[in-house]
Amino acid sequence: MDIQRKYTVSCQACSLNGLCMPHSLSEKEVEIVDAALKRSKPIQRNKTVFEAGDKFSSLYTVRSGAVKTFSVDREGDEHVIGFYLPGEMFGLDAINSGHHISSAKALETTAVCEIPFNRLEELSRRIPSMQSHMYRLLSHEISEDQQLQLLLGKKTAEERIGSFLLGLSSRYRQRHLSPTSFRLPMARTDIGNYLGLAVETVSRIFTRLQKNDILKVDGKEVCILDHHRLCEIAQKEPTYEAAARR
Amino acid sequence: MDIQRKYTVSCQACSLNGLCMPHSLSEKEVEIVDAALKRSKPIQRNKTVFEAGDKFSSLYTVRSGAVKTFSVDREGDEHVIGFYLPGEMFGLDAINSGHHISSAKALETTAVCEIPFNRLEELSRRIPSMQSHMYRLLSHEISEDQQLQLLLGKKTAEERIGSFLLGLSSRYRQRHLSPTSFRLPMARTDIGNYLGLAVETVSRIFTRLQKNDILKVDGKEVCILDHHRLCEIAQKEPTYEAAARR
DNA sequence: CGCTACCTTGATTTCGGTCAAGATACGTGG
DNA sequence: CCACGTATCTTGACCGAAATCAAGGTAGCG
B201 CA, D16 C1': separation in Å? Predict the structure, then answer.
């Protein structure tokens, strides 16, 4: 079964705020896991959740709002690594080295849920489905990252933007928001940075897609008018097919 | 502590053939883990270990030889995802979906070690340091993948090749082989494919680096003559600094 | 020994980056 | 509520790194 499906269903059922728990947990287990979570007060736009170099102690999930992770090189240039929407977990890259190698910043007013990692390790030993879930969550991140590598290494600017928008679209659908009409929480600069493109290129492609009646763009508001043609552009089969193959 | 260090030391100590076990295991535990491993007979060059679509049941480590993982798109084009040297684990991307989404093929005569995943889950519940180790291993793969994303999205052809060679160099050092003189187990085509470059570009840059006395290339034999300048080209600090920062 | 796969080198083209200049939106304080 | 300044976004002109096209060269294998 696909982790993403599991996630949406169970998040609501268990009210575990984005920990994406399997629903095989008992009442009692849900209670235990829930007790381990720390819910933060809202984080203002541009405030950081953690910074590169910070000691690693917790994983985080987005409860509301949006987060970007990024690293800064010696020349001071920022490199956007990922965007996280409600229900998604971030900070996974820090488990290995014991400190954060990237920073995380709120793209808008955001609430996160903190999960102390030592508690998580402990719980996943006691609750087998929890351990299994964590393995799958980490594995899922690896597949996604490899997907992005393919995109960055082989695809044209238009294909990248197309894939990016379709990706967002399906993530919004998963949380029962409109997959055709949504607001981009990040700036054009961030999109370009993430996709390995200049801002100007992102802008130009947005207008081109708009001219071809595939997209309607108004600032950060995006409306996908022709999902099918967008898939063609992204060199991806329509999502329902992709889902069926799983 | 860095997972890679742990790994080299313990692999030898425990003789667990690349499972990269922590050395905190007791005699008894080592025995148990060792019993779960299946050692394969050698795999011929170009033979697959598993193929995309196969049901996922095991993770693999390379014992000797080398492996590449790749996916094939609808047009039949291959996309190289990664190269694996002795001691490295592959197949991690399959945990989530329950079937392999990429294929793995031997680049030369290769022996692998198979680790049934259900046994691994079970063991990691019983042996806390084993679970902790697996989390770090998965997290490490995520960091590496994100590093590659940066390379693919932002770096020039020369920087990519430079980083690639330095990466190989440090992986060879980890297994106590010469970090300055080694044999590339993969074809130029595979390198280009992996780095998002045309074969011609890879070839041209190899000759250019050779002309500048940074590299000596003879077919698949590579010798790094000027490690420091190669680091500059790769936009990376020399490895000893990188190691010190950890 | 010859075939095929792999590698190298050169000539030409092209996609997307860079530079430059406006336009639009946004937050702040008067 | 509006004016101002700053961020962000868009559009155009030009340029360059690497892809593509083309043609030989080399090496490993049956």
Answer: 15
| pLDDT confidence of residue B5 | 38
A131 — contact with chain B (CB < 8 Å)?
A: yes
Verify whether the Cβ–Cβ distance B142 to A146 is below 8 Å.
Answer: no
* Residues whose CB falls within 8 Å of the CB of residue A181, separated by 6 or more in sequence, listed in order: A221, A222, A223, A224
pLDDT above 50 for A104? yes
- Asked whether the whole model's pTM tops 0.85, one would answer yes
**A221 has a pLDDT exceeding 50:** yes
Instruction: Please list, in sequence order, all residues whose beta carbon lies within 8 angstroms of the beta carbon of residue B45, skipping any fewer than 6 positions away.
Output: B106, B107, B108, B109, B110
Please name the residue ranges forming H helices in B127-187: 128-154, 157-174
pLDDT in tens, A169-202: 999 999 999 999 999 999 999 999 999 999 999 9
Average pLDDT of span B230-245: 65
> Same domain for A85 and A106?
yes
As a whole number of angstroms, the distance between CA A66 and CA A62 comes to 7
Q: Which residues on adjacent β-strands are paired with residue B71? A: B79
Question: How far does chain B reach from its first CA to its final CA, in angstroms?
Answer: 7
- Give the pLDDT confidence score for residue A166 in this predicted structure: 97
- Tell me what percent of the residues of chain A surpass a pLDDT of 70: 86
The kind and range of the H/E element at A28 are helix A27-36
Q: Are residues B126 and B210 in the same domain?
A: no
Cβ contacts of A235 on chain B, cutoff 8 Å: 73
Chain A residues in contact with B124 by the CB 8 A cut-off are 131
Our count of domains for chain A comes to 2
Mean pLDDT, to the nearest integer, of A208-220? 95
The whole domain housing B32 covers 3-151
Contact assignment for B135 to A134 by CB distance below 8 Å: yes
Q: Does A4 touch chain B (CB under 8 A)?
A: no
Residues A114 and A10 grouped into a single domain: yes
How would you write A127-189 as a 3-class SS string? CHHHHHHHHHHHHHHHHHHHHHHHHHHHCCHHHHHHHHHHHHHHHHHHCCCCCCEEECCCCHH
Which of these three, B118, B134, B151, is where a domain ends? B151
User: Which are the contacts of A70, defined by CB distance < 8 A and separation ≥ 6?
Assistant: A78, A79, A80, A81, A102, A103, A105, A193
Q: What is the token pair recorded at A32?
A: 């235990």
Asked whether residue B90 falls in the same domain as residue B163, the answer is: no
For residue A181, what are its two tokens? 């009409």
Please give the structure tokens belonging to residue A133.
């879930």
Do the beta carbons of residue B112 and residue B105 sit within 8 Å? no
The reply to whether A207 and A91 lie within a common domain is no
Residue with tokens 């697996």: B134
Q: What is the pLDDT of residue A11?
A: 42
Residues constituting chain A: 246
